[in-house]
Each structure stands twice: as structure tokens, then as C-alpha cells.
């Protein structure tokens, strides 16, 4: 019996150690992402009011639950060690206790109080985030989830783009938050940038809303967080938080007409005379499809295929020729173009700044 | 009370052709045989679902891995979840309830033996139908494929536009069929407990095991019905042009979510209440004390059952409900913690002042208490609606519910396997292998599921077949995969122990644990009629009264 209870003690200790190690590792990873590098999308590395309020609340909840854990786990370990059977054969049965109303009442009432406190804290944050008023200076963006990419429309600015959302940084003194209207064209999706806000689903026939007010510039990463089909995994999301000046420059770039350079007429003809135009739009051409991303300013984006590949001529060529090589199961068909057509098309797309 | 066994059929068993034995098992209406069938059926699917989990973990071992295609990965997590919930845990719990409830309440069989057999075969057929999709998912011509819509199958992903072929239909019909089986067995458990108790066994003297299974059966009827309704609606959509969930034609995707989770959350408690039932039998015996606060344990469980009907939308905090709805479902979720806490404290109270024997079943129960505590606390975090907006749909949730289902329910199940193995087979299991199983599984479990919380906090969503490097997820996912393999080895030790002990184990005798409930008064395995003469009881622990005539429980109750 001695070895057995020694082992049980070690078991508990091990469990706690593993847990602590996990928490420490997690904390280390969270801290590792410095402000300049937001590559680890940790929910504790908050750069926006909703994310910061959630982090604040989460610290409180972690504190309360951590305390409960310590108390109950200590009682459990104490009971296991203290009341272990030492010599089972010679021992008599212990005192037969059937219960105690007072004690049971105590461990009913105390949790009730904890629940009340937790609820108060939760309700406050729900209200602060969900019922936040929209200031007149807010930027409005309509996000449309598609199988497996993101469409961003800025109704006030007349911009349509995809997969890479540009928003201005919001100075607390002169807040310019971004309010997002969330729609879906097919299945359920979920918009989630952990460092900026919690997630909100995009559900067809059920418009939703969320908002961000980033306090720092930089690139923030996220991805679709509601299973939406085969390529749910590569429905990546990039949010560029620009300074006010950079944002204005980006807006001006997006408002320019599409490149009409006659040197690329061959490539443009390939685009206009094949199935490309059924799904993709380029300003000033006969391509007005909305099933796939708008390509008018394709070259202003760093990635293609919803973040699945870098936006380089080689990857672009591969993507048109054989999308399955980059994103198997995506709805982009292999275009079956000749090499010459493919080269001309890629050269044309490369001019869509 | 009698401990005499009538040796019925035992002598003629040897030397019969196997076809006859098989025929006997297929046509049986005996609650013990059906219980064993349920358990073996669940063990088979446990291995299948375990293999699916292994494929998932190998694929996620490193970023941009190409062990399987996205299509195969999506089928694997759909089938893993569906199989574990509907074809492993529900059947295994029904198996134990079937086997033990009549024995514990001094009855000779379930109330409706033929309904019992019918329900089992419905459930069994449901499981086969689900797996037939691998062959027939596209219809019998081309290659088949299994469902890939996730185990909660959100609309409109299940509509014909997004799920062509028949794979989703197999999912729907399999759950529909096995759901009828579950309702049949639930009705049977309720009828048995209400009307078949032996003389002297008032409701207040029933073993907690019977009480908790009564509550579980009631919840099955309440929870499975909306699921069945939703499946019928989905079939109408897919085959008769209905528009319940057809968002293109004014249908509602959130309607499915409500239907699914009003089933889905009580379902969690349908699975965990029988686990509570195991603990409530095993902990007292190995602490050598009666359960602490019996009436409160019954009340707390009934309270959990009731509250669990009011929390379903905490699975839907991110769908854009208004702040009042979010607040309501947050507080009901916290409130479930109160009766659950009472139960944990009462098990602690049972151990307190006892003489705890660390036999394998008890080790698993202690593991349960520790892990279920953590699972409950991460549940509080998820119930905090704003915190949930970050955690929901991430690997944190996956870690949380595996903490409940593996760290809680599976640990309790293993405890139950070892505790009642001598009763069911008549042989003792190998204690050393049992302890090896416990320790290996404990290490593997914590390596997998403690670590799994962290990628969720670092923004890793669930149900992705691959992930980008450089987000801090690589090492963590590798550790999780290693832990999964350790658990796999532990399961092999468990199965080996079950098989080897069946042939080589020492004879168990009627009552190897010096326990107190009626099933230990009959031979191991029990005779076909259970009790030669129907026992009469005077307290909650009839065998304690028998063993301690100088100090019987009946004096205090």
C-alpha cells in the first residue's frame, strides 16, 4: 500500500507541474510577440479596446478559477494522502459518516456568491463591447464571407478588395474605430483577429456586426474560425492597421482606375475571353464577376488565395494553372491555358497595381 | 436476500456449435447479455474513433503537413466526433445501465426485455449505417465518402448545394435510427427503476447508480427528441425541397443551431451523469464509507439535469445574439457549476476520514475528480460570454471538452470497467497491468490535453487540416501528438488486460471488493435469473447490513 499512495501523491504533483509548465510556456509565448512583430495571434496580446476588455475580464476569471482550483485540489491531495489505507488487512472499517447539512449548505452558498460576482463582471463587459455606440467618425466596412475567401467592401469610400483588410489606427483622443457588417454568401464563417477582438460569425441571411479600434499599427493575423467546408483551414485573414497617412495613401491607390496599359492587351484579352470574367472583376473590363475576389488592384495585396501563398509571379502562375497545388479543394478551377496565354495573363495581372 | 445461484444452462454450454452460440447472442433478450453487447459494440467503435483521432494528430504534427488531404481530414474529425458521442459513449453507458440497474435494484431483468433488444439492434444498425457511408456515400456507383460536415453539421453546409452526394444523408439517417434506439432504452431504464425494485427498496434506498441513471434516461428523452426533429427537417430539406435551413430561400441557419444545441448540451450531461453514477459507487467502496450526503447528491444531479436544459446557447455566443441573451446564457452556465461543485465536494466528503485503497478503479476515480475540476473551471471561462468570443471555435474549446470527455467520462469508464470486470466475467483483471494503464493514460492525457489549451489561446482555430508556421503553434502541436500516441499505447495495455484476464485471471468470487450493493450478492458472472429468490432490503447498503449485523445502516436511515 505504501508504494501505491506514494505514487498517487506523485501523480497529483505531476499533474500540477504539467499544468504549471503549460501555463508558463503559454505566458512565455504570449510575451514573445513584441509590438513590432504580431506574428503570434495571442488573445492576451491585445491591441484594441474589445480585445483589451476581454483580456482584463479573462485575468479576473483566471484569478477566480485559479483560486478555486488551488483550494479544491489541495483538499483533494490532502484527503488522498491523509486518508490513505495503511495496512488494509488489519484495519477496521472507518467511522461511517452519512453527511452533514451544515457543511453541505456551506459548499452550496459559497459557490452561489462566486456565481453572482462572475456574472456581474461578465455582464459589464458584454454591455461595454456589444452595446458600444458608433461614433460619426467610424469607418464602415462590409465583410462578406465566401467559401474560402473574404470580401471587403467600404460603402463610404467605394472600395472593394479581398482577404487583406486595411483600417486606420484609432487614436483614443480622436477615435476612428472600424465597424464591420458581417454577411455570408454561402455557409457559416467567423471573423477572428485575436489581438483586435473576439470572433463574430458570418451567417447567411443573418447580418451581424462587430467593431475594432486598433491602438497600434502593423499586420494582425487571423483566420476563419467557423468550419465552412473543405478549405476552411486556408481561409486566412490579414488586417493591416495603417497610420492615418498610410491609410489615406492606400485609399487613393484603391480609388484609381484599373491599369489600361496597351502593352498588356494580349494578357487582358486572355482575361476577358476566358472563364476568368465569370467570377472575377477588373475595373474597365468586361469582367464583373463577384464569385471570386475583385482583381482591380490585385498587386496591392501581399498574398493570393486568401493568404495561402505569397503574391509573386511564380505563385500567381501556379495558382491559375493548378490551384490544387496551393489550396486543394478551393473553388478556383484550373484554367487549362497554354503556356503563352498563361505568361501573357500573368504579365497583365502583374500590372494591376 | 439470497446469495444462492441457480446453475441454469451452465452444464450444457460446452461443446455446442458456434452458430448456436451466435444465434443465442443475436436473439437474446437478457439484460446482461444486451449490456455486454452494448459494451463490446462501444469498445469496437472506441478503437475506430481512436484510429481517426490518430490520423488527425499525425496530420497536425507539423505545419503544412500532407499526411492526408483536406477532404480526408474533414471526414476524420466529423466521424471521430459523431462516433465518440453516438456510438461509443452513449452505448457504453447504456451497456452498464442495462447490466447493472436490474442487479442493483434486485430485479430479474429490465421491464421490457424485447424493447431492450430492439433498441440495441437499432443503435447497432445506426452505427453500421454511418460507416457504410465510406462505401456508399456517393451512391453505390462511384467511390464513397464519409460525411465531412462536422459532428454538429451546421446548416447550410449540409444542404444539397454544399454537400452533394449522400454522405450527409447517412449521417442524418444513422443518427435518426440510433436516436430511436436511445429513446427505447431510456424508456426501459425509467420503467425498470420505477416498477421493478425489490421489496424494501424505496426510491430513497436505491443505489445512487440507479438514481443517476434514472435522471440520465429522463434527459435522453428530452434531449434526443429535438435532435430527431431536426434530422427529419434536414431530410425534408434535402429530399423534398423544404426550406427550414435553406438560407437562400429565407430559411434559417441559426434555427439548426438552436435545435442542435438544445440536444447537444443536455447530451453532455447525458454522458457525464452515468460517469457520476460510477464514481458514486466506486469511491464509497474504496474509501470504506457510505456516500456523503446521499439526498443532496440526488438533488444536485436532478438540478444539473434541469439547468442543463437552459444553457444550450452558450455554444452560440458568437452568432450575434443580443446582450441580454448573452447575459442570460452566461449566468445559467455559471449556475450549473453550483450543483456540480456540490457533487465534487460530496465525493471529497466521502473520501474524508475514510481508509482509501488505491486499487485501479479508485485511481481512475481520483483522476476523474482532479480532471473534472479543471474541466469545470475552463467551462466557467467559456461561459464568460466575452471570454468565449475569444475562446470559442479555438483549440481551447477542443481541449476543454476533451478534458470533460476523456479526463472525466473516460476515466470514470475505465474505473467502471475495472470495478465491474470481476462481476461480468467472473475473473479478476491483472492489477499491475491496470496500474500501468492508469499511469500511461494519465501521462498521455495530460501531455495531450493540458498542452492543447495553449494553441487555442494563441489563436489556433479548430477543424483546420493544416496551419501556417511562425504562429507559435508548432512545438505545442507536436507535444499534443506525442501525448496522443502515449494514450494509444495505454489503450492497448487496457485491451490486452481485458482479453488476457478473461482467460488467465484469478477467480473473482461473488464479492472481491467487499462492497455493499446487491449485484455483489450473486455469483460472478450472475446467473441468468440474477436472484434465485427476490431479495428484501432495509437500507441503502444491503450487504453492509448483512456483514455488520451489529451495526446495520437500517438503524440510521
CATH architecture of the largest domain in chain A: Sandwich
Count of the domains of chain B = 1
Largest sheet of chain A: 5 strands, mixed
| Inertia-based shape of chain B | globular
Oligomer: heterodimer
**Strand percent estimate of chain B:** under 5%
Question: Are there runs of chain B of 5+ residues with pLDDT below 50, and where?
Answer: none
The H-and-E topology of chain B, N to C, reads as HHHHHHHHHHHHHHH
Total beta-strand segments of chain B = 0
Number of domains of chain A: 3
Supply the number of helical segments of chain B: 15
Q: How far apart, in Å, are the first and last alpha carbons of chain A?
A: 76 Å
For the record, what is the CATH homologous superfamily label of the largest domain in chain A? Cupredoxins -  blue copper proteins
Please tell me how large the radius of gyration of chain A is: 28 Å
What amount of the residues of chain A lies in strands?
Answer: 15-25%
CATH topology of the largest domain in chain A: Immunoglobulin-like
Cα-atom radius of gyration of chain B: 24 Å
Q: Helical residue percent of chain A?
A: 25-40%
What is the CATH architecture term of chain B? Up-down Bundle
Contiguous low-pLDDT stretches of chain A (5 residues minimum) are 31-36
